[in-house]
Amino acid sequence: MTPYDDSPAQAVSTAPRTTGPSLIDGFGRAVTYLRVSVTDRCDLRCVYCMAEHMTFLPKAEVLTLEELDRLASTFVGLGVRKLRLTGGEPLVRKGFIDLVARLSRHLSSGALDELTLTTNGSQLERYASDLARHGVKRINVSLDTLKPALFRALTRGGDVTRVIAGIDAAQAAGMTVKINAVALKHDNAGEIPALIQWAHGRGCDITLIETMPLGEVDQDRTDQFLSLQDVRRDLSSFWTLTDIPDSTGGPARYVHVAETGGRLGLITPLSNHFCDTCNRVRLTCTGTLHTCLGRDDASDLRAVIRRGASDAELVDAIHLAIGAKPKGHDFQIAAAQPAVARHMSTTGG
Ligand code: SAM
Ligand code: SF4
After folding, report:
1. Ligand closest to CA 178
2. Cβ atoms within 10 Å of 233's Cβ, excluding its own
3. d(Cα 194, Cα 66) in Å, to the nearest integer?
């Protein structure tokens, strides 16, 4: 079997159709982490993520808060221990805090270890204390540059001071903040050491992300791509980086930076494969379950619930989808076309 052979080790049809406590895919990986995109909309237009003029989904296609709750809660019932809410920008979804409040019952019951979100931070100042009150302890805030003009250009209009105010508010509310920064060859490459120092200086981990070929945007991705292996080599020329053993089951590899005293994550989906230990699946805001970020596989759970499926039928549909989770992805930055057609804002990163 080649590394990217995606025929499951056991045939899907032989997978037990049970309502058992855990979701095990055809390659023996337990799915314990669900990311849920709650909206495809956003108040920013990051150049690597969206086109300048996006057509967003009609409301009827987007799951209601009740549907989002039902789907996410069903996964929790099947053994998912970590839920990450994302988007689009989750904090622009009307009623988002109500959804967090509802989902927090799984924290109280002990069924869920962590309820978290990934946000661009632009509305965080307003919502930080609500999030903390409902049990959100850690959040990821995306921030690619501290320079106001560059931030405005990269996000097509965003205000970096609002993001920093959001981070301040989140920390003041007691939440741990991790910064996510996409590494861009021509835009922030030279600023990466300063960004790391800034994050570590305020007690935040920071993770660098390689650009991924997802969805059509207005730029040439091969031109933006910056290999994090090269970034790591550069950083190692003046800092002492020590590997931290991986425990996330995800694409990030962590190093400790002796000089700044903080943790640096490197997400390298293009130059490294992390598929063997992948424990996660993604649900879009339209109820499509993607079991692999880099593949076009999809199961329509919205259709299942909107035709009036019972809880048992929904569980069966989820087991069927998980049983077919591909073995691995096959991103190629050199390809002229995106590896998959959907935007990061629909799957939620
Ligand atoms: N709006 C929120 C935010 O920006 O954090 C959540 C959704 S956003 C799609 C999630 C993450 O995906 C962000 O950290 C963003 O930088 C990253 N992202 C978006 N498009 C990307 C791409 N083409 N390659 C790599 N990362 C990308
Ligand atoms: Fe919006 Fe996040 Fe995409 Fe930027 S990366 S356009 S903030 S969804």
Report:
1. 1
2. 11
3. 43
Whether residue 45 has its Cβ less than 6 Å from ligand 2: yes
Q: Is 89 a pocket residue for ligand 2 (Cβ < 6 Å)?
A: yes
In ligand 1, which atom is closest to the CA atom of 89? 1
Domains of the chain, first to last: 33-347 (3.20.20.70)
* Cβ atoms 175, 124 nearer than 8 A: no
Q: What percent of the chain has pLDDT over 70?
A: 82
- pTM value? 0.89
DSSP of 153-166:
HHHTS--HHHHHHH
Q: Whose CA is nearest to atom 4 of ligand 2?
A: 46
Name the 3-class secondary structure at 75.
helix
Q: Whose CA is nearest to atom 12 of ligand 1?
A: 349
AA letter at 334:
A
Position 193, amino acid: P
Among the listed residues 173, 181, 143, 141, the one whose alpha carbon sits nearest the alpha carbon of residue 160: 143
